[in-house]
Write a structure and sequence with these properties.
Layout lengths: L1 H20 L4 E6 L5 H12 L4 E6 L5 E6 L6 H10 L11 H5 L10 H6 L3
Amino acid sequence: MKNMKKIITLVTVLIATLSFAQNKNARASMEVDGVCMMCKTRIEKASLNTKGVKSAVWDVKTHELKLIFDERKTNLDSIQNSIVAVGHDTKTLKATDEAYATVHPCCKYRDEAVKDDHKE
């Protein structure tokens, strides 16, 4: 009986430790391809529509997406999957041709001519 109480106590401590290990305000950034303000809106909206994402800000010039999210509800893989689903590539995941085809013609970031049109 004494050993059982020790085991239960140990399991409770482990569960409590694991719960605290997940950050409700985790910060991360990732590279996401895009060329314009329409891309910015689409990328940020896809990120924010992922449960647990609290903030998503994408920079048109640097292509950096800065995130604040609840690790208890989501992770970077889920966020990336939401982004590629709306047609934008990340450094580690590529949008399907079907998803890429849905972006506006001015947002075709894989096309060198479109990229050139967006340079200052």
